[in-house]
Amino acid sequence: MDLQNIGAGNKDDAFYRYKMPRMITKIEGRGNGIKTNIVNMVDIAKALGRPASYTTKHFGCELGAQSKFDEKTGASHVNGAHDTSKLAGLLENFIKKFVQCYGCGNPETEIIITKSQMINLKCAACGFISEVDMRDKLTTFILKNPPESKKGSKDKKAMRRAEKERLKEGEVADEEVKKLKKDAAKKKGSSGNLKEVAAKAITKKKSIHSDEDHSPNGSSHADDHEVECDDDDDDNIQWQTDTSSLAAQQRIKEQLNAITASMVMLSTDEEKPKSGKISPKRATNEIKKFIKKGSPVSQFKSLLQSLSGTQQQITDALFEALFEGVGKGFAKEVVKKRNYLAAAVEEEGSQAVLLRAVESFCGKASNEAVKEVALVLKALYDSDVVEEEFIVEWYKKGVNGGNKGSPIWKNVKPFVEWLQSAESESED
Questions:
Q1: pLDDT score of 162
Q2: Rounded to whole angstroms, how far apart are CA atoms 310 and 333?
Q3: Strand ranges across the sheet with 35-38
Q4: 413 vs 259: CA distance, rounded Å
Q5: Which of 3, 24, 136, 164 is buried deepest, with most CB atoms within 10 A?
Q6: Domain range for residue 93?
Q7: β pairing state of 67-69 and 76-79
Q8: In this structure, is residue 295 part of a structural domain?
Q9: Is 406 left (phi over 0), alpha (psi -120 to 50) or beta?
Q10: CA 187 – CA 171 distance, rounded (Å)
Q11: Are 253 and 388 within one domain?
Q12: Which of 120, 144, 168 finishes a domain?
């Protein structure tokens, strides 16, 4: 089946995940009875998540011709002879009006009919509610033939809960294994544990030599084997030097004196973040000056490194400098200035710092900016500035943390759920 990306704006994106079949049409009949049959209308409508009757009716409304969709046979007909390219253009208009989110452009939306008989599109990715223009002729047909409620949503939620529980159990098991390894490492120096390890090694050697006895050279190792396997006399056991990293560090500590040890520890001290306090206003002004001069983004990282203070302080100052006073249109500003944010997340652990900066900024920003936080995260995610695992972890900590009453989590929730569902679908 020949597939194409949903939405004309995404036609050149080779990695776009939302696809639909290319339209196939067939002219049937003659004279006044001539009709255009959209052969694969059912498959197209299924890919768009809309009833095939909606798309067929849309063609009829736009062309001013009678149209009919047969629910039993799945046949879609529009009176008159129409080119495939013309119908494909009309289908693109349908996608823009009734499928794609008006906020982020994602086609994963659901039609919702309000109590006041208005049609909205709820986006599963960013949570944005798009209001459909009720002047369109198709809206009357949709109100008379509302879409069926999605089935199986409870089952999906139950599956997700079960998956989360399995992940938690796996994490607990991993923690127990780590604890056991630590305990084993601590007890490694005790004589009782060493005897147990030696006994296991001897048992293993016995099994090896028993196999070698069948070979012609088996007798040549017999005498050596008897000496090594004397369980009654520990002095005859041949010990080997423990070459693990933990043991090596222990030997270094024993051999180095206090002065040498302090010299060795200098390298680890240098890796710690700068502890000097920074004036947020001063850091913000420095970043503003840099951007105002129009300096290249390649030099921006060196500017951030020159500022004193912790990584979190500098990133918070960066957000203040880039988006101070922003309200509606916060997400668009993030897209424009994403190169500066990308330069700030090149170090390890900086993605989590950036997300905390978003949280801190939204705590001071206007309600209009906070409403767009899901769109902001999607822009950062699409630009590969922040990865999915960091977003999910940050969200979980925020919901369960001391700031769980913040409206930011309510706005972020739909996007996080979309991320998790998209991952589970890709795994399936």
A1: 66
A2: 25
A3: 25-28, 35-38, 76-79, 67-69
A4: 53
A5: 136
A6: 3-144
A7: antiparallel
A8: yes
A9: beta
A10: 25
A11: no
A12: 144
Which two structure tokens, joined as six digits, stand for 215? 């070979």
Residues 394 and 343 in one domain: yes
Residue 121: CATH number of its domain: 3.30.30.170
Report the C-alpha gap between 382 and 392 in whole angstroms. Answer: 15
- Judge whether 104 and 128 are in contact, CB under 8 Å: yes
Q: Quick one: 292 and 398 in the same domain?
A: yes
Token pair, residue 15, equals 């990695």
Residue 231's pLDDT is: 44
| Residue 84 domain-assigned (yes or no) | yes
pLDDT of residue 54: 95
Instruction: Tell me, yes or no, whether 202 and 74 share the same domain.
Output: no
Q: What is the pLDDT of residue 284?
A: 79
Q: How many CB atoms lie within 10 A of CB 13?
A: 11
Residue 199 sits in the same domain as residue 78: no
Query: Pairing between strand 119-123 and 76-79?
Result: unpaired
Work out the burial of residue 332: count CB atoms within 10 Å of its CB; fewer than 13 is exposed, 13-18 middle, 19 or more buried: middle
Taking alpha carbons only, the member of 87, 111, 86 closest to residue 98 is: 111
Residue 110: the pLDDT is: 93
Q: How many domains are there within the chain?
A: 3
Q: Which residues of the chain have pLDDT under 70?
A: 1, 149-164, 166, 187-280, 348, 422-428
Question: In a 10 Å sphere around its CB, with 0-12 CB exposed, 13-18 middle and 19+ buried, how is residue 303 labelled?
Answer: middle
Residue 237 domain flag: no
* CA nearest neighbour of 365 among 413, 336, 333, 400: 333
**Cβ atoms 48, 20 nearer than 8 A:** yes
